[in-house]
Amino acid sequence: MSKKILLSVSLLVACAFVSLNVNAQDHKDHKKDPEKYIKKLDTNNDGKISKDEADKAEKGKLKDHFAKVDVNKDGFIDKAELETYWKNKQAAKEAKKQQKS
Q: Would you list the domain boundaries of the chain?
């Protein structure tokens, strides 16, 4: 009986690990591809993310940084704004790394 319990627990742990790994990879893929990221959050399929859609997102910091990303202040984040924000964020990280060196 204890072997069955041990096997069941091991199987549950393995499934949880695989699930977490898949979700992490999915998140990374969306960070690489603004179109995929927008499609994931764009519930009304208009090709852009509204403040309401960003607020309803389960994870991520987009809702906290919405005003920064929405450069033209039209109340929506489009592909170009998202790409620019991510590029600027990456450049800032690289600059910070170089300053530490």
A: 1-32, 33-101
The CATH number that domain 33-101 falls under is 1.10.238.10
Alpha carbon 74 to chain centroid distance?
Answer: 22
- Whether residue 24 contacts residue 30, with contact meaning beta carbons closer than 8 Å, is answered with no
Q: Residues for the chain: how many in total?
A: 101
Token readout for 93 is: 């990280």
Which pTM does this prediction carry? 0.66
Residue pLDDT, tens place only, 35-93: 999 999 999 999 999 999 999 987 778 899 999 999 999 999 999 999 999 999 999 99
